[in-house]
């Protein structure tokens, strides 16, 4: 069975939200609203196993960046992660969420693409959190 979405399409979907994410990044309270909505939205994604294991870390990294607790990451990385969240919440899916199970594949693919693009930064953040005892 062919995969309905590939990483190139997922990365393309990310870039579609770049301008909105950059604007959003200027207002920490709006970012927090997005983070809370994303936490709720991801609860509806069934059976993703470890594919989204770094999702809470990504949300925490954005929160730490907004609060200026962790600034050892480029704005570009934070924008990329916000793009993934905006895609998740936008309803502009490559595969409609109304299609059982398969409808969530694009959401997982876009978030996974963000993880791939931001992997070293997420790992560095995880190490920083560990060193801080968080």
Annotation keywords:
single chain, 134 residues, mainly alpha, 6 helices
What report would you give on this structure?
This protein has one domain. It is built from 6 helices and no strands. It is mainly alpha-helical and 134 residues long. The chain has helices spanning 7-15, 18-24, 28-42, 55-66, 75-90, 105-132.
Overall residue-averaged pLDDT value: 82
Distance between the ends: 42 Å
Radius of gyration: 14 Å
Approximate shape:
globular
Count of distinct strands? 0
Helix content: 55-70%
Low-confidence stretches: none
Quickly give the structural class. Answer: mainly alpha
How many distinct domains?
Answer: 1
Oligomer: single chain
Strand content: under 5%
H and E string: HHHHHH
Q: Largest sheet, if any?
A: none
* Number of helical regions: 6
Short synopsis of the structure:
The protein has 134 residues and is mostly helical.
């Amino acid at each position: 069975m062919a995969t309905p979405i590939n990483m190139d399409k997922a990365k393309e979907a990310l870039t579609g939200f770049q301008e909105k994410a950059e604007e959003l990044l200027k207002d920490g309270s709006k970012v927090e609203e997005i983070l809370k909505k994303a936490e709720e939205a991801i609860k509806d994604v069934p059976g993703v196993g470890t594919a989204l294991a770094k999702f809470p870390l990504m949300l925490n990294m954005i929160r730490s960046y907004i609060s200026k607790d962790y600034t050892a990451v480029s704005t570009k990385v934070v924008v990329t992660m916000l793009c993934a969240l905006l895609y998740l919440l936008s309803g502009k899916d490559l595969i409609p969420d109304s299609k059982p199970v398969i409808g969530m594949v694009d959401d997982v693919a876009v978030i996974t693409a963000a993880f791939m693009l931001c992997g070293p930064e997420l790992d560095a953040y995880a190490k920083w959190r560990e060193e801080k005892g968080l």
